[in-house]
Amino acid sequence: MTEERVQTIRILEFSGKKEDWNRWSKTFVATTGIKGYRRALVADKDEELPTEEMNLQASNDLLFSFQDDITFGIVDEATSERFKEGDTRVAWKNLKVNFEPNTGAAKVQLKMEFQQTILEEDEDPDDWINKLQLICRRLTVWGAAVSKDDMMLHILNHLPTTFETTVEICEDDLTKGTLTLEILRERLRTKYRCMKMNDSVKTDSVVLYTRQFKGMCKVCLRKNWTQGS
After folding, report:
1. What is the DSSP string of 128-168?
2. DSSP H helical segments within 164-221, as ranges?
3. pTM listed for this prediction
4. Which of 45, 52, 67, 118 has its C-alpha lying 20 to 30 A from 109's C-alpha?
5. Per-residue pLDDT of the chain (229 residues; tens, 9 = 90+)
6. Phi and psi dihedrals of 198, rounded to 5?
7. Hey, where are the domains in the chain?
């Protein structure tokens, strides 16, 4: 990759939310690798210290990424004897402590969040499954990975009754060992779209019936009444 293209790589802004940290942090580290200053954040060996130029570039990109006071302050206040104006490696460690609390209590809380996440009646299954996958990624980082079978079982057990037929088919395939998360997601997506189309057709039918009504209006006692007449 040419130096000009490297310089145009955009640094994504971090929302400041813990649920967004895992994806954003991995993207940021990957970006630092392409730009050539990954060592300013992490090192394979402790003796691999970053240069002053690397540290400055990483620090600037971090500050541009954070707009909320808390994360900006974590970076701005991180200093060391080597980099008195700001040490990016120290800042990165402090950010990880803040957004990656590797404690038993945090794992329990996140597992409870996973178990209590259900698909609401009018919620898009794709959006819901994405939320579950985000929680699972965080649990994996904390050493409490959720298996694909457990993920599918949770999905099947936390759907509204409108998905009852789809659940029965999927449970049968899960028993046979032929169900995958991708197949399950596609079936739920198809069912959701069908329900939305049926709702739309019912609404159109009601509107059409109302416009074609030719009986006597019980309110104004007019015959051959139509809406708007």
Report:
1. HHHHHHHHHHHHHHTT-PPPHHHHHHHHHHTS-GGGHHHHH
2. 164-176, 181-212
3. 0.57
4. 67
5. 445 444 556 778 898 888 788 889 989 999 888 888 888 888 766 567 888 999 999 999 988 888 888 888 988 899 999 998 899 999 999 998 888 766 778 788 889 999 999 999 889 999 999 999 988 988 887 788 999 999 999 999 999 999 999 999 999 999 999 999 999 999 999 999 999 887 666 554 544 555 554 554 433 334 444 444 4
6. -65, -40
7. 3-99, 104-212
